[in-house]
Amino acid sequence: MTDINLPEGLESVGRLGFIGCYNLASITFPSTLKEIGAFAFEDCPALYEMNTLNPDPQDISDDVFQNFNQSACTLYVPIGSKLRYQQAPVWNKFGAIVERSSSGIATLATDRTVSATNGGIALRLSETTPVAIYGIAGNRIYQSTVSGNTTIPLRSGVYIVRVGSENRKVVVSD
User: Fold this and answer.
1) Is the whole-model pTM more than 0.85?
2) What is the structure's pLDDT at 111?
């Protein structure tokens, strides 16, 4: 088990819920989650990404993440809730807290611009950054390291553009 999306309606992750899930890489919490039990994510060394759809951080104790490197994990939160998570005990120990829309696509850093143009995608990057573009079916269409201003010609369609570790949905039309 590497990626888990907990269902909407779930209100609690119990004590020891995912203890020892050594291959767990990513988990998504529903907006309905209210409680995470003690030691729920103890010994989850591969966990690099947590997503929460709840704009309000739960009150949790330090022991939820025992033997787990929170500083190496990115926490994705709903747009408008980053400050609440940064100020919340335990949640504020994540290495990065990134706002993400309900579509699951993160917002890009301010020094990176991705936009649709007629027949392609325009990238404006302030530093050399790995870029990958995926079709709506998940197939990789483009991959390179990009810096400065670049336009990548593409047919009409919906694409997911990965710039560094951030993603953006782009619709290209002719």
Assistant:
1) no
2) 67
In angstroms, how far is the first alpha carbon of the chain from the final one?
41
What residues contact 140, with CB distance under 8 A and at least 6 apart? Answer: 132, 133, 134
Nearest 5°: the CA angle 130, 137, 25 is 60
Domain spans in the chain, listed from the N-terminal domain onward:
3-100, 112-172
Q: How many CB atoms lie within 10 A of CB 162?
A: 19
Do 3-100 and 112-172 show the same overall fold? no
Distances in whole angstroms, Cα of residue 102 to Cα of each of 22, 97, 167: 28, 15, 13
Task: Give the Cα separation of 108 and 80 in Å (integer).
Answer: 14
The single-letter code of the amino acid at 121 is I
Q: Quick one: which of 43, 97, 87, 48 has its CA closest to 65?
A: 43
Residues in Cβ contact with 88 at an 8 Å cutoff, skipping those fewer than 6 apart: 57, 59
Token pair listed for 60: 């949790």
Using CA atoms, how far apart are residues 34 and 13, in angstroms rounded to an integer?
9
**What top-level class would CATH report for the domain 3-100?**
alpha beta
pLDDT tens figures, 47-106: 888 989 999 998 888 888 888 788 888 898 998 899 999 999 999 999 889 887 765 555
Q: Which CATH superfamily is domain 112-172 in?
A: Immunoglobulins (2.60.40.10)
Report CA torsion sign: 87, 92, 97, 101. Answer: negative
